[in-house]
Design brief:
The protein is an alpha/beta fold. It is 28% helix and 22% strand. Strand 3, helix 3 and strand 4 form a beta-alpha-beta unit.
């Protein structure tokens, strides 16, 4: 999806370098130094306008959250939400989340969120899906032992693909919901902007899984 460029975004990001970085390599293995307190670190790849990660941080002050987004104009909107919130347990990174294993040291991350990722519906693009086996391997490198992946989508095809991909990669399923909003799993569910807008059009699918401890 093409995003309209926001002329104010670049300057706003530079003004708030205490909350966002565009040079993640500088913080490899030292992300906790950007937070007020050392706490478990959970990351979201593809934060959109930031509703999910900001609300999660508000509800869970005992956890540090780091949001990754590649589009400058989108992450600038998320940054504005973060500034307005006054929270000190969220940091943002403007970069490509597909390279997550180059952004974190092994075992640096406690949990990873994938919310409404691009489904890349054409078969020839399957390797680009963030739940493809190659990406799952990257996540395994940065997650702590038994660290969880939480994945939500409204795309049935992507969900079925992801179930198979997780299973074939050896992940252990903790929860699988075929209609999240009408299930016990909806208790405490924090919605994204996209989720609020499109959930009336069909079910939201969710799975939570972890890698087996070696």
């Amino acid at each position: 999806m093409r995003v309209r460029k926001k002329p104010w975004a670049e300057g706003y990001i530079k003004t708030h370098s205490d909350l966002i970085t565009t040079n993640p390599a500088e913080h490899l293995g030292h992300w906790q130094e950007r937070f007020a307190t050392v706490q478990p670190l959970q990351i979201e790849i593809g934060i959109g306008k930031g509703q999910f990660i900001v609300e999660m941080a508000r509800q869970h002050p005992e956890i540090n959250f780091l949001g990754i987004e590649i589009q400058e104009s989108v992450i600038a909107v998320a940054l504005r939400k973060l500034v307005e919130s006054g929270l000190n347990n969220v940091q943002l990174v403007e970069t490509d989340g597909a390279n997550v294993d180059t952004l974190f040291a092994p075992g640096e991350v406690d949990q990873l969120f994938l919310n409404f990722s691009d489904p890349w519906p054409k078969t020839r693009h399957a390797k680009r899906r963030l739940t493809a086996p190659e990406f799952l391997g990257h996540y395994a490198n940065v997650l702590k032992p038994a660290g969880k992946i939480q994945f939500k989508t409204d795309n049935r095809g992507l969900f079925e693909y992801s179930l198979a991909s997780f299973n074939n990669t050896g992940l252990i399923f903790d929860e699988v919901w075929l209609d999240l909003h009408h299930s016990d799993g909806n208790v405490g569910n924090v919605q994204t902007e996209y989720e609020e807008k499109f959930s009336q059009k069909g079910p939201i699918y969710e799975l939570i899984a972890h890698f087996p401890q070696s």
